[in-house]
Amino acid sequence: MESAGSSVMFAGKKLKVREVDNFDFSQVRLVFFAASPAVSRSFAPKAIAAGCAVIDLSGALDGATALVPEANGERITELAQPALITSPSAGAVALAVALAPLKGLLDIERVQVNACLAVSEQGREAVSELARQTAELLNARPLEPRFFDRQVAFNLLPQSAVW
User: Fold this and answer.
1) What is the value of pTM for the model shown?
2) Residues of the domain holding 137
3) Is pLDDT at 163 greater than 60 in this prediction?
4) Burial, 67: exposed, middle or buried (Cβ in 10 Å; 0-12, 13-18, 19+)?
5) Residues 86, 157: one domain?
6) Residue 110 resides in a domain
7) pLDDT category, 127, cuts 50, 70, 90?
8) Which BP terms does GO give this entry (predicted)?
9) One domain, residues 21 and 50
């Protein structure tokens, strides 16, 4: 993994980031996957098999329960153990938090939302693609999309599903 060997601060302590390949998941009870979808798909099943609760931020895991603590956090007690939880997209979290106070007060049947989401939600490779496309367009060079199937630089794209 790219981060292995680097350090992060947690609770005022500097911690070294280790490779996940040989990690013994039986030594922990909760695992956060804040990595690429490929990493989550590869290692979350191992963590669950070891009895860990898993919180995945990639959105790549089928069968994960989407939780927003401010909106439906009470559902955590209903989950099978070990639990597999995903964090919805930033737009979905914002909507859930905004609607949560209305729960029980109104019978909401439908919500229609137009959201402008950041390319960065798709990860580092997406941000690199945006930077490359921007440089190519500003230098009047032809554009060949690689990560995305179309131009994202200087663009708003209609999208109703995951890229």
Assistant:
1) 0.70
2) 116-163
3) no
4) buried
5) no
6) no
7) very high
8) alpha-amino acid biosynthetic process
9) yes
Indicate the burial class of 126 (C-beta count within 10 angstroms; 0-12, 13-18, 19 or more): middle
Residue 2 lies in a domain: no
Compute the mean pLDDT over every residue in the chain, rounded to the nearest whole number. 89
| Residue 107 domain-assigned (yes or no) | no
The whole-angstrom separation of Cα 138 and Cα 141 is 8
H helices, E strands: number in the chain: 4, 6
For residue 97, the domain's CATH number is: 3.40.50.720
Query: What total of structural domains would you count in the chain?
Result: 2
Note the residue count of the chain.
163
Out of 54-58, 111-115, 149-153, pick the least confident. 111-115
Is the confidence at residue 1, as pLDDT, over 70? Answer: no
Residue position matching structure tokens 């490359």: 132
Average of per-residue pLDDT across 138-158:
91
Q: Please name the residues in contact with 100: beta carbons below 8 A apart, sequence gap of 6 or more.
A: 68, 70, 71, 72
